[in-house]
Write a structure and sequence with these properties.
Number of strands: 9
Radius of gyration: 19 Å
Oligomer: single chain
Structural class: alpha/beta
Number of domains: 2
Mean pLDDT: 97
Largest sheet: 6 strands, parallel
Shape: globular
CATH class of the largest domain: Alpha Beta
Bound molecules: pantoate
């Protein structure tokens, strides 16, 4: 496995690598969720490229960027264990060289939910992923469904710009108590960590009500919100029940829907979701 820093090193390594190429874009601090993406890429493609880049353009809050966890040695060990072939861990100037002056802005699908809560966030995500797609020209790229809206934004961008990389969504990986794997979990205090599985419990309560026949979106949102309200450390930012295709809020759940939430535990903001489409978890 090679660890590469520059665009030139990456290009040269890709030139001598077999195709198809599978790309796993990350911001590092890899966990079991990333492992599952790398393993999926390993099983489907001949060359697996993992990128590790904490992208400053997608942070709406500078303190969030400063405290984003980083450990390249830990990440390299995980990539090696999962059988990645190439790691691209560039400095900021290799991703955004002097003179870089383009922003990729995806439309409606990027507007609600995380787009509304974190202005500019999806412009930053779409821009960096467009650079990665352009440089690596992978046949497939793998993203987790925990960031469901991100997955949809990237898929829209790749299709609209005819990039030729297939965007593959992979199931959310959870801790045994249901908490979705996230690099941000490391910031939770012991008490917050003990409280955080309420996110999944609340979403499952909503999903169970839907499975039992509840179709009033407000009532589903309320079931989730009431469960969150019972946890004093949880400060909900939003609870959404939206059309899974457009992410527009629903009144009646008469089509596949996404039940999603963003909740703060102290300074740490976590998101999670459940699809209401008849598929499991
Ligand atoms: O999900 C992430 O880790 C990031 O948003 C991504 C897709 C690597 C872009 O920086």
């Amino acid at each position: 496995m090679e660890v590469l820093r520059t665009r030139d090193e990456l290009r040269q390594a890709l030139d001598r690598s077999p195709r198809p190429v599978g790309l796993v874009p990350t911001m590092g601090w890899l966990h079991a969720g990333h492992r599952s993406l790398i393993a999926r890429a390993r099983s489907e493609t001949a060359t697996v490229v993992v990128t590790i880049f904490v992208n400053p353009r997608q942070f709406d809050d500078p303190s969030d960027l400063d405290r984003y966890p980083r450990s390249e040695a830990h990440d390299v060990a995980i990539c090696a264990a999962e059988g990645a072939d190439l790691i691209w861990a560039p400095p900021v100037t290799e991703v955004y060289p002097p003179g870089f002056d383009t922003t990729v802005a995806v439309g409606a699908i990027a507007s609600p939910l995380e787009g509304a809560a974190r202005p500019g966030h999806f412009d930053g995500v779409a821009t960096v992923v467009a650079v990665l797609f352009g440089l690596i020209r992978a046949e497939r790229a793998y993203f987790g469904c925990k960031d469901f809206q991100q997955l949809r934004v990237i898929d829209r961008m790749a299709r609209d710009l005819a990039i030729g990389t297939e965007v593959v969504g992979c199931p959310t990986v959870r801790e045994p108590d249901g908490l979705a794997m996230s690099s941000r979990n490391v910031h939770l205090s012991a008490g917050e960590r003990a409280a955080a599985p309420v996110l999944h419990r609340a979403l499952v309560a909503g999903r169970d009500a839907w499975a039992a026949g509840e179709r009033d979106a407000d009532r589903l949102r309320r079931i989730v919100a009431e469960m969150l309200a019972a946890e004093p450390l949880a400060e909900p930012e939003y609870v959404s029940c939206a059309d899974a295709r457009t992410l527009v809020e629903l009144e009646v759940v008469d089509r596949p829907a996404l039940l999603s939430l963003a909740v703060r535990f102290g300074p740490t903001r976590l998101i999670d979701n459940e699809l209401l489409d008849g598929s499991e978890g």
